[in-house]
C-alpha cells in the first residue's frame, strides 16, 4: 500500500473511530473550521480505495467505507518512517529533539525511565 497523506489520515482517523460511514458522514465528522468539502472527501476516498487502504460497499445510491489498514499498522509505519528519515533510525536523537522542544511531564519522564529499565532487564 502507498503512503497515506496528511489529509487522507484525517479521514482514516474518522473511519478508525467508527465505520462503516458514508462520504456525507465522514464530512460531518471532520472539523468544519478546516473547510472540508464533499468533493474533496470523495476524491480522497477514491485515492485511498486505489491504494488499498479502504473498501467500499454499495448501499443503495451511496457507498459505505471501511478501513482495510489497521490504525496500529499505520502508526507503526509512520513512526518508523519518521525515525528513519529524520533521525537515521536512532531513538536517542529523537527523544533528545522532542524533549528539547517540549518540557517532559513527570509522567513522561517516569514512562521513559520504565522503558529503559525494561530494556536493561531484557538484556
Describe, in plain words, how this protein is organized in 3D.
With 123 residues, this protein is mostly helical. The chain has 2 domains: 89 residues, Arc Repressor Mutant, subunit A (Orthogonal Bundle), CATH 1.10.10; 34 residues. Helix content is 63%, strand content 10%. The chain contains 6 helices and 2 strands. The chain has a two-stranded antiparallel sheet. Strand 1 and strand 2 form a beta hairpin. The protein starts with 5 loop residues before the first helix and ends with a helix. The model has no long low-confidence stretch (mean pLDDT 92).
Strand order of the largest sheet: 1-2
Low-confidence region ranges:
none
Percent in strands: 5-15%
Query: How many strand segments?
Result: 2
Please estimate the helix content.
55-70%
CATH homologous superfamily (4th level) name of the largest domain: Winged helix-like DNA-binding domain superfamily/Winged helix DNA-binding domain
Order of helices and strands: HHHEEHHH
In this structure, how is the largest beta sheet organized? Answer: 2 strands, antiparallel
Mean pLDDT comes to 92
Amino acid at each position: 500500500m502507498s503512503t497515506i497523506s496528511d489529509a487522507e489520515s484525517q479521514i482514516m482517523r474518522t473511519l478508525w473511530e467508527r465505520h462503516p460511514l458514508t462520504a456525507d458522514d465522514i464530512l460531518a465528522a471532520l472539523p468544519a473550521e478546516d473547510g472540508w468539502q464533499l468533493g474533496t472527501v470523495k476524491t480522497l476516498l477514491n485515492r485511498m480505495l486505489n491504494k488499498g487502504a479502504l473498501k467500499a460497499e454499495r448501499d443503495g445510491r451511496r457507498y459505505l467505507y471501511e478501513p482495510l489498514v489497521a490504525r496500529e499498522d499505520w502508526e507503526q509505519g509512520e513512526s518508523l518512517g519518521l525515525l528513519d528519515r529524520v533521525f537515521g533510525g536512532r531513538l536517542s536523537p529523537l527523544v533528545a529533539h522532542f524533549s528539547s522542544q517540549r518540557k517532559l511531564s513527570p509522567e513522561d519522564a517516569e514512562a521513559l525511565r520504565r522503558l529503559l529499565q525494561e530494556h536493561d532487564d531484557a538484556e
